[in-house]
Target: Inner membrane ABC transporter permease protein YdcV
Amino acid sequence: MDSRPRSFYLLTAFFALFLIFLYGPTLTIAILSFQGPGGGLTFPMRGVSLHWFRDLFQEQAVGDIWGAFRRSFVLGVMVMMTTVVVSLMGGLAFRKRFAGSTALFYLIITALVIPSILVSLGVGLIWSQSGLPVHWATSGFGAQLTWALPFGLLIMFAVFNRFDSVYEEAARDLGASSWQVIRHVVLPIIAPSLIGVALFGFTLSYDEFARTLLTSGSYNTLPLEIFGMTTNVTTPVLFALGTLTTVFSLLIILVFLLSAWILSRRRARRGSDAGRGDL
Model:
């Protein structure tokens, strides 16, 4: 006899509805992207084919899909690398208390609660009033950093808050310099966390819309290009684009997770080999 309380089934049903609400739109777009050549933007489907995926790789009447994709990819890599470096340096700096550290911490977190469109407007105004060209690689890059950097710093703060300094002290006792301690002790231990920061930096940049809206200049990133296409494209090619970008995002996440798993295996293997050496 099933002794589970009724609340268990209610919570299960609620969680199932939540998953449908969360992933239902993405699955719907993925299904509709496989419409036949005569298909439209709604159900019922008119045949099943890869027609709209093939059409996506042909020249479009409106928009610059692949140019926008390249810009988003390059911008995502730029934000990712900057976020990793600055977050690591910030995490190391905040390990010791210094004058104004608390105020600086809250100032960093404040960037997360300011409406994104206001940040985009402010950065765009600063660039234009300074006589600088508003461009996705400059003003757009700066606006996206205000979104990605706080997340990276929060991760590093949490990592170093739990970091055991015994490993560093042991390395110093063995004659290691400060740089050698960071390179050979600290970085290998926190490498999986740095991969997480890199993943945050890239994905937050890759699909950022609001903070890029007024800072990208005359060249769209992929989210802006997709938004523009919604007012012009009336075929499932838009759904095919959404499906491919979703698959690309999942592949990026898979690559980062695989990298973290490989690093953790290597660290475990080194620890095992060191233990055998001591024996």
